[in-house]
Amino acid sequence: MSTKIKPKGLLFTGILIGAVLLMSFIITPGRVTVYLAGDSTMAIKQPKAFPETGWGMPFSLLFDSTVTVDNRAQNGRSTKTFISEGLWDGIVSSLHEGDYVFIQFGHNDEVPTKKSYINEQGYRDNLERFIRETRDKKAIPVLLTPVARRKFDTTGTVVGTHEVYSAIVRKLAEEQKVPLIDLDRESQALLQKLGPEESKKLFNYLAPGESINYPNGQADNTHFSKLGAQKIAGIVLKGIRLLKLDLARHIALSNLKPVDEK
Length: 262
Description:
Elements: H1 7-26, E1 32-38, H2 56-59, E2 67-71, H3 79-84, H4 87-94, E3 100-104, H5 120-136, E4 140-144, H6 163-176, E5 180-181, H7 183-198, E6 203-206, E7 218-224, H8 226-242
Parallel strand pairs: 1-2, 1-3, 3-4, 4-5
Antiparallel strand pairs: 6-7
Helix pairs in contact: 5-6
């Protein structure tokens, strides 16, 4: 005996199949967002600042299509102002299980003459909050020591400028068992390898007339050129691999076009 499917049954079946197909587009297994929380050395730059480049810009290109890099870093921010301006809450409200938050502050926290200054205990407290609230969302915090400034002594030896605040990050990462990328030490090593003159290529050093954005030239030992941003992003990428984060499986270096180093 043949079984006839009633029109209502066909309609229900069609709706069910359509819903399943729709959900297959909406829910993409394995997708992850990497949030960047930090200062101007990491931030996306406006055209008026070019060729100054935050290392988070090339970093966003280093992964396959399952990874979205959401760069929330802003110029001049410290852990204190990142919180007071609501930037941190914006990240927390967006977090999902399995996401990452890469946290790199220090440049503006450590300078007493800046409004963004916060003392050593306050810096540690804010970083602890970032760790705790990230983990509360079942996301993964990654701490980074502040990236090095370009500074050499008279013998051509690189000089660290974040010693106290970088030490706080290292100690906190060890105590809280948080993945750590020691960007300060790694970038200092890169600067030392290049030396006082060649290392200028990594920073926003410009001769007068070289850029319409800097008609009088520029000698910036903090912010990066496109080449410098790529080199720092490469250090972070190496750290991801050494830490054996699951994120390493989604690296896609072919997405990044190298910058001419000449």
